[in-house]
């Protein structure tokens, strides 16, 4: 086995060991944090807040959907023709 | 007439080299994949375009002023550079290809101070840094680009599913075997004499297994900048291929019954937990792995801005204007490393081959870890969410969901898979920190 | 095993110093104030987070490449630096704490050229500038960050109420006593032997009394960069505390009858006046105080973009994407100066103490000036709007309004107080220019 | 009195003197400017333009307020049910 | 008292020079044109404001640290600079105006390395680079600013009308006679002894005829940076005047019958053609004129982002936040070159005079080319669309439309004129590449 | 004729020659490209997509034009008054 191979094995052992150690610590830290927050925090629930999920910016705000818009246009036209503005 | 001759001898058609033709075709191929096949277009469009720009003959867009001066090899400029770079060359001496090579080699090995002096001398002689060279220096050379992308990704990440089920962090840990397994794979190729790699190169290639674009670019810019083009292209291409790479592995390692496991609905997570979590991660990084501080620090900062609710305008900017601007420059900068002489190389093929191994190993280890965990926990975990531990947010989680639905049409795994998915981001950033600590 | 040892001896837990623990706690405290108490969160979130990042042991995020090299003190790098920094050190010699201190002191006193050479040498030896160090250099070291914020603030400022009643500019002048009074206070502390200050430090501390974030950062970056962390934190914290600091002073200095004075409605101001006003200010600056040109020039430029009506897209960008981007980096950069060795110091306590004096004096002088003006003008001024002259836009104006409503529920002072409020911004920028002219 | 003290006093005198001088000049310059603009400028009033006041970007443009939107939806629904589109 | 004296002797009123007064008035004039007359306000507001800032006496906003040190001429700083700039000056010697001039001349001729050393020395002596000097260096000195604007313009350009009728590219070629004709005009002025120009200056002036702002700034920054102020102002002013300059020429060169020609409706263009077109242009540039690669490369990149449909967020940012940010800094940077000593000069008058010639020649050649093409093609071209070949997008196309409507109220030329209009952008970028190749 | 003059003439000849050569090549390349795309591309028409034309960002999205909006308001008012919500 050449040197690179042994370096790679060393790196794997140290690396995976550390990654697991770190994330296991993080599991416990997170559980502890949640427990503390839920115990001492004021009882504000607000779980139903729909978090923005996607990475992408909603490209067009479009507050009125096309169907609706079209229908509105027709309604307006009717309305105007009736009222002879 | 004279002037038309100058235009002709300075044209691309007159000067183009076969390697440049190939690289331009590769650039066009990346654009095709990005535009038609929707392969991570946000990065691959700029990378592909930057790759084409970098290979335009005579334009020297990806070269420094000194490299441009050496390319054009006018005796006066060469004489001025000879002193700075310590190459033996007399003013007036003919510039043979060997001498040009000697200058290139000397520039490559020069110290920072010499490089900056050589560029100043080249500018005095009328040469400038190429546009893409400047982009690379500012955005990647300083490491700022990937860090800002990571900040923006943090501002787009919802840790809710992870907080509801923190043990899925372990799935994100297991999937990092993809990284270190690939390092081993590279070492194996070297041992077998198929390709030559240093440990730095092997580590940089391994990070492809992290399945996270900015982390890959960051690590390779620190450990092996000459491979950044191949590594980034490989990472983004395989991230786009996740829906094809993962399902066969996932199915091979699980039984129909395991795939049909329904998981209980996630508990609601309070806003306060979401605010405190990035700070917990930051403190853990500070205590245990300072070398991951730039990556995870910026990630946590972005996430804190998102969740804290009092700096919406900063969070919006981090998720939109700022990340978009950085993405444009980052992509072009990565593209600048797709130059023929460094890309058309056996190593690149090795990187592409190892990259897919990395994804496969990561996927497998994530799934196996989930099965292992099922031996210890009460509420069973559907092993399909283990594969999401590789990162590739949110594609890998969607794959888990899709394969789950195939096994059981009532089985919605998406939110459950988001936990390991974002855990994978943290996991690969930790792995990056370890590699930089031990090798950087 | 060896590698795990490296990870452990390089971890934060192994290396952390008490000062860093304290500073991280202070950073967490700032985040708490920003997020829970809504203390100027747009700045204090990035400052607090940057402060934590800067104090992560071994990460060196706020240090230059040379400082990082000195910190790690490898003999080879030290030998290379010794030549540049003119420290007597032989290659191979053991690096004692004294030698490290000698290097640090030499670096601190080095010329620009030596510093840039030392950093190049450190980079040749594998050290890099910390992320926050780079942010600080680009954003604050160049003075560009505070100036761009000021441009954005200009683009958000409506001078209408000031134009309707220009004599309220005098209230903005009087409140600047807070600045110079604080300089005097610092001198007093020095005279009494309690703390040591130079005149530059005293002036930089005084600017807290300007109650304007970017002005404070700009002035302290020019006059006393080592105090910038404490000064910025102090300025933003007290700006957030304006609703608590000002009312008692305002009430103590005014009678119930004075507080109940109703002011006549402001005349309408034409668009054209609003367009011409920033140009008038600019010309006045050009003629009388060129040293205020960067600050007030950018402020007027932003305001002209806002009002002129033909460059809406530039004005929008100045008010949103650009100011947000700069705010993120400015905050992190200020945070980088919250390092233990420079922050945990008697001076910081002095700065915090003097800061509140500055706000109190400014408030009082504004109110008294309004009372004085009432002796000369026909239409009486409600002295409560005088306190708005300290700046702290728009908080101070709201405080005037609130205290006014308490005295007389029909008394709406908000628009009247906006005049002195924006006048305070101009006034403190002028004071900044004077201090830079006389001391810079 | 030590040197710093006298420097600080000097700075205060010069500084406050200058700040007042500058802002008094600005008062007169502004009054003059307003007079000139109002005399020579075309008589466009436009005082009622509601200037954007806050420093913050209006987070949602929302061209139609929620009430209206809801009412529209109902109106459209009626319209559609009548027209059997 | 002493301090008030310092303030007075340092004030603008005490130090102002007649040239600065004139330049400030010119800056105000540009603002007037931009705001009241709507002359290309997006650029002329920042340019005009930057021009005023650059001429504030004693502020030195457009000067480097070394230039500021030379301006203030303190003996100690001068002694330090003397060594770097190789001027014979002893510490303590009186600084006569001649010595100051010698320093200025030495700085102007210094190499890059000496300039950077001189600035470091000046910083050690307490002087800093002016804000506008920094902007100029980063935005224009690096050529990045105009290139990013060009990218944004590419992202805003619809090549549909050009693709529907590609032969209108020839109109965009013909109109470039405006560029080279103006070079000839400058040479003529030089030959007649009226003004002195070098070929570099003549070429930079000619580019005004390209009627394209970023191209003008890019070319003059490469060929003749000292003329950039006058050239940019001239280019943008005449672009704003297109509706006045072009119609008389168009009418003089066409008959009523020609102007009334109705063109057949353009064929629909598919999305795919629009996606492939920027790549075709890029490949043509790569093969034939690498020196146009920065300009046209960024232009095509912007256009590809726009059309490819998969990177909408990048395209949006390129068209909005990014181009706006760059426009602000580019405008201020150009304004920094409106300093009295370089602007108030016969050359500037020559540039203004030649600029209008450039537009007129370009317009005429475009119209004549259209008439010539009518001799060869079946479907007649309305010669009025030829004038749109000068660029000045979209103003020139609107002028074609308007003049066409005057001749025939049913004649809608706008879309037909958009073809030559965007062809003119490509044409002038090609001409820019040729000039840089042959002279740069 | 001095040197600058002859340089300028040279530049004009080379420059205009090259500009025309380049754009003529581009004409043929574009025609060829269009032909290839239209022949081999799937027959997706989508010609009617209204391309964004101007260089300027549409300053206000305004999905509903003012007239329409006003008419809607009236309609809503009527609707509400009828339904006594
Ligand atoms: Na990962
Ligand atoms: Na103030
Ligand atoms: Na043109």
SSE map:
The complex is a heterohexamer, with three copies of chain A (about 80 residues) and three copies of chain B (about 450 residues).
Chain A: H1 3-40, H2 66-83
Chain B: H1 2-9, H2 12-15, H3 18-36, H4 41-54, H5 65-72, H6 75-85, H7 97-109, H8 112-124, H9 131-141, H10 144-156, H11 160-164, H12 169-174, H13 177-191, H14 199-206, H15 213-223, H16 228-252, H17 256-259, H18 271-288, H19 293-308, H20 312-319, H21 321-335, H22 340-343, H23 346-374, H24 395-407, H25 414-439
The complex binds sodium ion (3 copies).
One sodium ion binds near residues 211, 212, 391 and 428 of chain B.
Notes on the structure:
Chain A has 85 residues and is mainly alpha-helical. Chain A has a domain at 1-42. Helix content of chain A is 66%, strand content 0%. Chain A has helices at 3-40, 66-83. The longest helix of chain A is centred in the first third of the chain and has 38 residues, at 3-40. Chain A is rod-shaped and about 60 Å long. Chain A starts with a helix and ends with a helix. Residues 45-69 of chain A have low confidence and may be disordered. With 440 residues, chain B is mainly α. Chain B folds into two domains: 17-131, no CATH class; 144-439, no CATH class. Chain B has helices spanning 2-9, 12-15, 18-36, 41-54, 65-72, 75-85, 97-109, 112-124, 131-141, 144-156, 160-164, 169-174, 177-191, 199-206, 213-223, 228-252, 256-259, 271-288, 293-308, 312-319, 321-335, 340-343, 346-374, 395-407, 414-439. The longest helix of chain B has 29 residues, at 346-374. The termini of chain B are far apart. Chains A and B meet through helix 1 of A and helix 11, helix 12, helix 13, helix 14 and helix 18 of B. One sodium ion is lined by residues 210-212, 390-391, 424-425, 427-428 of chain E.
């Amino acid at each position: 086995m050449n040197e690179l191979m042994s370096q790679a094995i060393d790196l794997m052992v140290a690396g995976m060991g550390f990654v697991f150690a770190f994330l296991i610590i993080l599991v416990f830290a997170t559980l502890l944090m949640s427990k503390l927050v839920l115990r001492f925090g004021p009882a504000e629930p607000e779980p139903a807040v729909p978090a923005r999920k996607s990475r992408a910016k909603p490209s067009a705000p479009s507050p009125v959907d096309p169907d609706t818009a079209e229908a509105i246009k027709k309604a307006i036209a009717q309305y105007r023709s009736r009222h002879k503005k | 007439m004279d002037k038309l001759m100058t235009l002709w001898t300075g044209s691309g058609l007159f000067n183009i080299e076969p390697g440049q033709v190939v690289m331009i075709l590769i650039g066009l191929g990346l654009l095709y994949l990005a535009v038609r096949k929707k392969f991570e277009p946000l990065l691959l469009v700029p990378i592909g375009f930057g790759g084409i720009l970098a290979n335009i003959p005579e334009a020297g867009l990806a070269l420094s002023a000194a490299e441009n001066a050496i390319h054009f090899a006018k005796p006066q400029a060469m004489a001025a550079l000879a002193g700075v770079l310590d190459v033996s060359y007399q003013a007036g001496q003919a510039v043979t290809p060997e001498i040009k090579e000697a200058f290139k080699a000397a520039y490559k090995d020069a110290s920072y101070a010499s490089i900056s002096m050589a560029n100043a001398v080249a500018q005095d002689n009328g040469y400038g840094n190429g546009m893409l060279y400047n982009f690379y220096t500012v955005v990647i050379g300083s490491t700022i680009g990937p860090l800002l992308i990571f900040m923006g990704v943090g501002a787009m990440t919802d840790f809710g599913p992870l907080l509801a089920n923190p043990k899925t962090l372990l799935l994100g840990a297991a999937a990092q075997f993809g990284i270190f397994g690939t390092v081993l794979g590279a070492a194996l190729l070297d041992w077998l004499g198929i390709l030559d790699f240093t440990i730095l190169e092997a580590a940089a290639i391994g990070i492809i297994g992290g399945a996270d674009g900015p982390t890959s670019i960051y690590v390779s810019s620190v450990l092996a900048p000459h491979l950044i083009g191949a590594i980034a292209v490989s990472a983004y291409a395989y991230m786009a291929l996740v829906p094809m790479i993962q399902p066969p592995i996932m199915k091979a390692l699980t039984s129909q019954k395991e795939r049909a496991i329904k998981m209980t609905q996630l508990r609601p997570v309070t806003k306060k937990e979401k605010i405190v979590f990035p700070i917990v991660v930051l403190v853990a990084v500070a205590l245990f792995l300072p070398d991951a501080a730039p990556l995870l620090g910026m990630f946590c900062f972005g996430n804190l801005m998102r969740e804290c609710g009092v700096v919406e305008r900063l969070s919006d900017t981090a998720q939109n204007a700022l990340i978009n601007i950085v993405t444009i420059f980052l992509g072009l900068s990565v593209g600048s490393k797709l130059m023929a002489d460094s890309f058309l190389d056996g190593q690149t093929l090795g990187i592409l081959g190892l990259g897919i191994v990395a994804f496969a190993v990561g996927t497998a280890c994530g799934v196996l870890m989930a099965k292992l965990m099922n031996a210890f926990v009460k509420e069973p975990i559907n092993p399909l969410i283990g594969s999401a531990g590789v990162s590739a947010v949110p594609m890998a989680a969607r794959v888990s969901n899709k394969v789950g639905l195939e096994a059981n049409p009532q089985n919605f795994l998406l939110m459950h898979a988001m936990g390991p998915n974002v855990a994978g981001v943290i996991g690969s950033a930790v792995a990056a920190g370890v590699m930089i600590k031990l090798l950087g």
